[in-house]
Write the structure tokens for this entry.
Amino acid sequence: MWGFITCLNDILIPYLRGAFDLSYTQAMLVQFCFFGAYFIVSLPAGNLVGKLGFKKGIVTGLSVASFGCFLFYPASILEVYSLFLLALFVLASGITILQVSANPYVSALGPSKTASSRLTMTQAFNALGTTVAPFFGAWLIFSGTEHAITDASAVQIPYIMLASALMLLAVIFAYLKLPELGKKDISTQSTQKSWHFSHLKLGAVGIFLYVGAEVAIGSFLINFLAEPNIAGMAESQAANYIAYYWGGAMLGRFIGALIMQHIAAGKVLAVNAACSISLILLAVFLDGPVAMWSILAVGLFNSIMFPTIFSLAINDLGDAASHGAGVLCLAIVGGAIIPLIQGVLADLVGVQLAFILPIFCYAYIAYYGLIGSKPVTILKEGS
């Protein structure tokens, strides 16, 4: 569900851009408000989940996300862009609570050696939602129309449906019998101790840049494919092609989960980052089908990056792992900052050249996989 909702933003951006006549920078405020919630809500969410436990944390997250989806209805009636941004922030706050509950839970459900593989497998099902969402969004939001978008009414039905589905899930999880895990009192000592691990801090930067690059690419795909020198597609048609980007991520996660049972996760991460850089260079400097399929293929190599960086960053943290996971969830705010910067670049130099920005993000990720992810503690004395 959270993969579905996150990817639906890629459809929402060009739709709202047309409905409100926005610049690329203004349109990227969608991702800024959505992923900005991770920065603001992550630590409070971690404290909340620590008091409630994982099960009640999931129910709370689903309920808040449902309310956020419902807010799209009054926002579309009043036709105020700022209300859409508020609805996105509330929705993302619920998704943040889900992230803070689920990711450490999955990592704790087995040996630390295979945590990357296990989290990659669960992220593959997240990618199933991101693969289906473009078809759903293109069908219900753009409705196959070729004419100009004049209002925001088309979002009403999709987000009311999502609100209902999320509330139904909240009710189901409330009655499911699940292990009572996640309740804990995080000591001040373990909280301070986590900051002494360099691979955690470098991993937080990696999460920031990865999420930023992934979201920035997805956010501009429709506009990129609509460029005359790339594919010249109508937005309703281009929206369907986003599924190839996210579908590649889903396929890659299933494959990556198997590969990382045998090859070191850091090496796999570096190779994937290098492949992403090569593909983006083709998309920036070439035109037509080669550029189109190159940028779509980046999704395949994005696949294992988030779960791999996450698990490498919390490796060997001991009793500081819980706080470390909260720090990493904070870093998801990269999805708010990087797309906004790319929006500014797109207004200045055009959509195609603006894709230069993610290249720098993947260069750092390659460094982290090979060097920065090696556990090193700066704490020399004491605990």
Q: What stands out?
A: Residues 25 and 343 are 4 Å apart (CA to CA). The chain has 17 helices and no strands.
